[in-house]
Amino acid sequence: MATATLDDLSTQMQAEPFSQKHSSITVNRRTDRGFYMRLVQFFTARLRNRLVHPKEEAPRGCPRLTPHKIIRRTCHVSERVVDDIYLYDVRPKRDKKRLTNKRIYYFCGGGWQSPPSSQHWQLAAKLARDVNTASTTIVSYPLAPNNPAPHSFPALLKLYRTLMRMAEENGDDVILAGDSSGGNIVLCLVLEALREDVARTDLSEVDIKRIPHPKAIMAICPSTDLTRSNPGIEKLKQFDPLLTPDFVKATAKAWKGDWDATDSRISPIFADISLLAKADIRVHGVTGGYDILSPDGITLREKLADTGVTGEWLHWEKQMHCFVLAWPYGMREGREGVGWIISVLKKE
């Protein structure tokens, strides 16, 4: 089967505004599902207990990572520490001297409890290779349950401020990206930083734009509401081959600690979404129709559209949670989903 090019992909997608004719959010909808993806979902449903549960609890503090050996074939990986948090810069070997003015900071998913998988490292490497003039950095954030949000989030917010200041000094544009729980973190960091900016200084809309923040967010199948109260979760559970209601409730409990589940620092759906529009931060995203977290992701997308936040979203029916991570295994939907992400990030 031939691999679709980005031009082919753009013709396959049906771009349409989500809520109204002139919506600020463009939704690209797909409904197809190939035989091999059906097969993967069948076996995933039978192996999910092994696939989603962490092998062991991470200790207190920020874990030091070992980059997966497969990406060293095409990329260099260098480690640095900023505000006591390990960062891993991924750059393609073939472009050692290329100039970069765009930084993608990637927060990997895993229920806030697992370090990056081989698929995460490979996605970071592909972004580094294919998003022109961009460098990709994996952020190794502290993991639950020994590092719940009340402990970890303030440290991550400090890191966020430092990275934004460094980018401003270097003239870099920043994109924050993440999948699942990582998508939750990037949304929460930006929204909380904006809330702090407004609360501290009573800034006007023009002044908010002068404070360093990312140009855009890419949220892949993000976890947006830790109350896990959306009735869509129960409706979709029979179709989701990877996640179960009990599992997503357990991961939410491990991350939230003693914070209320409606706290906007852990549930971005309860934040003041309009601040993103005022700061001119675009929010892009991906949702899958067989993902029990997708109803909350769609609710966030609706709020973005209602408040005038701009962005592009891919919604692919009959796809499981974080289906784009299946691209290294030759899954067409994974390849084309990653191709769509790259095409959006290239425009930033």
TrEMBL record:
<protein>
    <submittedName>
        <fullName>Alpha/beta-hydrolase</fullName>
    </submittedName>
</protein>
<keyword id="KW-0378">Hydrolase</keyword>
<feature type="region of interest" description="Disordered">
    <location>
        <begin position="1"/>
        <end position="24"/>
    </location>
</feature>
<dbReference type="Pfam" id="PF07859">
    <property type="entry name" value="Abhydrolase_3"/>
</dbReference>
<dbReference type="InterPro" id="IPR013094">
    <property type="entry name" value="AB_hydrolase_3"/>
</dbReference>
<dbReference type="InterPro" id="IPR033140">
    <property type="entry name" value="Lipase_GDXG_put_SER_AS"/>
</dbReference>
<feature type="domain" description="Alpha/beta hydrolase fold-3">
    <location>
        <begin position="105"/>
        <end position="324"/>
    </location>
</feature>
<dbReference type="InterPro" id="IPR050300">
    <property type="entry name" value="GDXG_lipolytic_enzyme"/>
</dbReference>
<comment type="similarity">
    <text>Belongs to the 'GDXG' lipolytic enzyme family.</text>
</comment>
<feature type="active site">
    <location>
        <position position="180"/>
    </location>
</feature>
<dbReference type="GO" id="GO:0016787">
    <property type="term" value="F:hydrolase activity"/>
</dbReference>
<dbReference type="InterPro" id="IPR029058">
    <property type="entry name" value="AB_hydrolase_fold"/>
</dbReference>
